[in-house]
Amino acid sequence: MAGATVVVPRNFRLLEELEKGEKGIGDGTVSYGMDENDDMLMRNWTGTIIGPSNTVHDGRIYTLKIFCDISYPDKAPQVKFCSRVNMSCVASNGVVDPRHFHLLGHWNRSYTLETVLVELRKEMASPQNRKLPQPPEGTMF
C-alpha cells in the first residue's frame, strides 16, 4: 500500500530511543537513559545537557527527569530540571512549561527524547536565556 504510514508501537519506539541514548548521540552534549532498569512501561528517564559555550551555561552539567506516560509518543513527555536553572521556559519548580517551550507545546509524534534535550540546549543559547543570571552551580530543585 503506497503512502501508508506505519505507526510504531510505544514500547518499540522507546526501545529504539533507549538503544540510541545508550550508544551516545550526536556530539555528546546531551544524553539520556532509563531512570530504573526494571521500569517495564519505560516511563521514567534521566537526561543530561552540557551547557552551550559562550553562554552563562558554559561548562555546566544539567540533569533532568523525563516522564513518558502511556500515551507517549502521541503526547509530549513531562520534563523537569533537577539542576537549578534560570530559563524563560522553566517554571520556579524546574518544570519545563509547554506554554513557553514550543517543542512541548506543539508536540509532534516524530519528536524524540533526544529532540527535547537538543532543543532545550538550543534554548539555553537563545538571546533571552544566554546571559540570564544563574543559581550557584550544583544547586538542585
TrEMBL record:
Entry-linked SMART domains: UBCc
Domain of life, per lineage: Eukaryota
Record-annotated UBC core domain positions: 9-141
Entry-linked Gene3D superfamilies: Ubiquitin Conjugating Enzyme
InterPro entries, alphabetized: UBC, UBQ-conjugating_enzyme/RWD
One Pfam family, short name: UQ_con
UniProt KW keywords: Ubl conjugation pathway
Entry annotated with the keyword Metal-binding: no
TM segment ranges: none
Protein name listed in UniProt: UBC core domain-containing protein
Organism: [Myrmecia] bisecta
